[in-house]
Amino acid sequence: MNFAGDGPKSEAVTTKLRREDSVGSTTAKDEVGLVRQAHALTADLTTPSRAFYWADLILTAAAAWGGLALSATTRSLPVGLVAGLVSLLALYRGLSFIHEISHLRPRDVPGFRLGWNLLVGVPLMTPSMMYEGVHNLHHAKDRFGTPRDPEYLPLGRFSQAKLAGFALISLLAPLGVILRSGVLIPLSFMLPAVRRMVKTKLSALVINPDFVREDNDKTRPDWLAQEVGCWLWCWGVAALTVAGVVPLRVVATWFAVFSLATFVNQLRTLVAHYWQNDGERMSFEAQFLDSVNVPPPALLPFLWAPVGLRYHALHHLLPRLPYHNLGKAHRRLSRELAAASSYHRVEEAGLTPALIKLFRRVKSNRVPAEVRAARVP
Prior knowledge:
Layout: H1 8-21, H2 28-42, H3 50-73, H4 77-103, H5 112-121, H6 135-138, H7 160-168, H8 173-188, H9 192-201, H10 221-242, H11 248-270, H12 284-289, H13 301-304, H14 312-317, H15 326-336, H16 351-364, H17 369-374
């Protein structure tokens, strides 16, 4: 496959990179080498396509809310189920853009954060401020996998029952956002203690229950606007439902679709990492090898790991790559890096095989080979 810069010079660079990568050791020097090689091979892929972001968001939102409307109003059960499935997958895809927003700079795709909040974030009462300033901590090398990481738990050391509970609790997400937006946010503007609790414990999308967000009194005006928007949306929909303007079936359908979307995301979360770290600081290679790619030829990850989430390990290696270029970057790295490179050791075949391996692993209390290898001095 050709890409920008192909030719004698780039071939020489590739040859040099392969030579440097062929050693295959796990020293700190090689960790830096992997990052440098990956950057060199994907340097032309770091610019987000504004048209791609906007077109994807608008089409996704149209499918999500159009499917929801049809599912909630049709008298045909088959049509309702198909429309509900479309809405579920599109709503999940739309919600997944919150991950991209946490990495985008305002100048990258102007207005995208606002557009996303209006089309997805506020209607789901999950605004972007709940991920901004939080997700980047998961990428901090001195935090990843430690108790200070908001998005890491040693799930690979859980029991099978605890893993199942971790997945199933996500079905209650709609109740959580309704309680936060409709009750706690307005109450927090009257009671300082509630405000502190909302800002430190209830304003971050995390999986680590011990994570506490820094309580900064100087809340960004746009973040405050997002909170107020969620509050007014929640009260507005409730009032229209009580008045009979919005049928109860519409609200129930929204609840079911949103609940299932968060459940799918929780299943994806279970296979996004190997989750074996016990809280100690990890080397960069150990962090990378604890992460997972689910690349083609598997097709279904396009649905259950949308917006580039199927390339989770690659994202940890190169977090600045926009989601629409991750597939191209993966193909380059897979082709150009030597067989001994650790890049080739983080792939799973699909959601079901990865979940089966996880549940078998926790039953036998076995550490994945990828993680064991990273621990070798």
